[in-house]
Each structure stands twice: as structure tokens, then as C-alpha cells.
Write a structure and sequence with these properties.
This protein has one domain: NAD(P)-binding Rossmann-like Domain (Rossmann fold, 3-Layer(aba) Sandwich), CATH 3.40.50.720. Strand 1, helix 3 and strand 2 form a beta-alpha-beta unit. Helix 2 crosses helix 3 and helix 3 runs parallel beside helix 4. With 250 residues, it is an alpha/beta fold. The chain has nine helices and ten strands. The protein is globular. A four-stranded parallel β-sheet has the order 1-2-3-8, with helices on one face. The chain has a three-stranded mixed β-sheet with strand order 4-7-9. A three-stranded mixed β-sheet has the order 5-6-10. InterPro entries: NAD(P)-bd_dom_sf, NmrA-like, NmrA/Isoflavone_reductase-like. This is NmrA-like domain-containing protein. Keywords: NADP, Oxidoreductase. GO terms for molecular function: oxidoreductase activity.
């Protein structure tokens, strides 16, 4: 992110009344000081740098404990890591290691959140829906169920999730809605009045386990195709208090 983009990014938060606190992950003393008086840390570290994803979160956890933070929410989101085998995909290894670290640490509460694929990503052609070309690509069979969440819904739900006792030291799944690619095709055709070509995308089947290990996009497709991207009882559907999300489950 360029400097001007950063200024706008942080400025938008400040304009909404947010108080910005700055700290460096490689400065444990300064990081601890910056976290003083904070009850919950929501980690949003992301990217493909495994060192940052693990060591960065670990540094933040250690500083949080020293600052007496009560709860740490890991940078998980996306797939339910409990459904992914150890060392199945390189991208998820540091996230899995962080979860294991917190599960074995009673000095700070934790919450692990899975959201499925962000709904916005479904409209990127390589993930499934190509509006311009009128093409729908499914992950495996057309009737496989997929749970997905809008990023805005995650932000809206988080405050209430934190306040629920059921989220303490828990692994929870969220979903704005659950659907199938066949249903998406029907909706797209009803809205546009045009036919969409339907393709069952099984590209991941041509890859070995070793190749999937390093290709996160294809790996995600394979997880959905085997049914592990479907949440039958999302946390926000079984807890009435979590009613802020603007989308209803299909």
C-alpha cells in the first residue's frame, strides 16, 4: 500500500471516530505499551509471508498477554482450519500453528473465526462467476453447497460475537448465506434475462498433493468440492442476537 493510500485508509477510520494506536511487531516493549488498557485484540495480518503470519501473530499474542488483554482473535477467517489436515496447504500452516499455540495457552482467551470464501471473491472470474462472459464455474459438482460471507458482515458481527460467552475459547463459523453454483446460475439468468454457460471446474483434480500444497486457489476449490466449505449451523444463525448481517441464508 502506497503512502497516499495509507493516509486515506487510516483517515477513513479516524473520520468514523476510531482511535489509531501504532506499534511495531518487532518491538515487543513498544507493542506491549500500545496495547495497554485494551480488552480484545482482533488480528488482521494476512498475506503469503509465513514468517509474518506466524511470528507476527505470536509477537502480538505475547505482547497482548503482558498487557493483560483478555481475548485474542486470530487472523483466520476464510476456511475452517479444523477441516484442513496438518501440512495440507502451505498458506494455512502458520494459521494452524497459531491456533494450536493458543489452544494450549490458558493465560489468554481466544476465538477462531471461519467465514468461508469471502462472497466478493465469487465474482472474480477465476473463482466462479464471470458476469461479462456469462460463465458460471463451480467447484466440483453443481449442487455442492458453499457457505460464504460478505466482508462487511464480518465487521458488523464481530462486536456482538465478542460479547457472547459462547465465543470464548471457541471455534466458530459465520455465513452470510449458503447456496450452490446451480442456484447462482439460476439467479444470474433471472436477473439478466440471458443464459449463462455452466462449467464444472475440476482443475484441482489434475494436481498432485504436492502441487496443491503450494497452490492456494486450487486448494480452496478442492476443499469446497469435498464439502468442507459448507457450514450447516453458522454461529450467526443459531444465535438470535447476531442479526446485523444483511443477507439471509438460502
Amino acid at each position: 500500500m502506497e503512502n497516499e493510500e495509507k493516509k486515506k485508509f487510516f483517515g477513513d477510520f479516524q473520520n468514523q471516530g476510531a482511535k489509531l494506536i501504532f506499534g511495531e511487531l518487532d518491538d515487543p516493549v513498544g507493542l506491549e505499551k500500545s496495547l495497554g488498557g485494551i480488552d480484545v485484540v482482533i488480528c488482521l495480518l494476512t498475506g503469503h509471508d509465513q514468517e509474518i503470519l506466524f511470528n507476527g501473530q505470536k509477537s502480538l499474542i505475547e505482547a497482548s498477554k503482558k498487557a493483560h488483554v483478555k481475548r485474542f482473535i486470530t487472523s483466520g477467517y476464510g476456511l475452517d482450519l479444523f477441516r484442513i489436515k496438518e501440512n495440507e496447504c502451505s498458506f494455512y500452516i502458520p494459521k494452524q500453528r497459531i491456533e494450536s499455540l493458543l489452544e494450549n495457552d490458558s493465560s489468554i482467551e481466544h476465538t477462531f473465526i471461519a467465514t468461508g470464501l469471502f462472497a466478493e471473491l465469487l465474482f472474480i472470474p477465476r473463482f466462479g462467476i464471470d458476469i461479462k462472459q456469462r460463465i458460471i464455474k463451480s467447484f466440483g459438482s453443481s449442487d455442492v453447497k458453499i457457505s460464504t460471507t460478505f466482508s462487511d458482515d464480518i465487521a458488523l458481527l464481530l462486536p456482538d460475537i465478542i460479547l457472547l460467552d459462547a465465543s470464548k475459547n471457541a471455534r466458530i463459523n459465520l455465513a452470510s448465506f449458503t447456496t450452490t453454483f446451480k442456484e447462482i446460475q439460476q439467479i444470474a439468468e433471472n436477473i439478466t434475462g440471458e443464459k449463462f454457460q455452466f462449467i464444472e471446474d475440476r482443475s484441482y483434480e489434475n494436481l498432485t498433493k504436492e502441487q496443491l500444497y503450494n497452490q492456494v486457489t486450487e486448494f480452496v476449490k478442492s476443499v469446497y468440492a469435498r464439502g468442507d466449505g459448507y457450514f450447516d449451523k453458522p454461529f450467526n444463525k443459531i444465535h438470535p442476537k447476531l442479526s446485523k448481517n444483511s443477507n439471509n441464508d438460502n
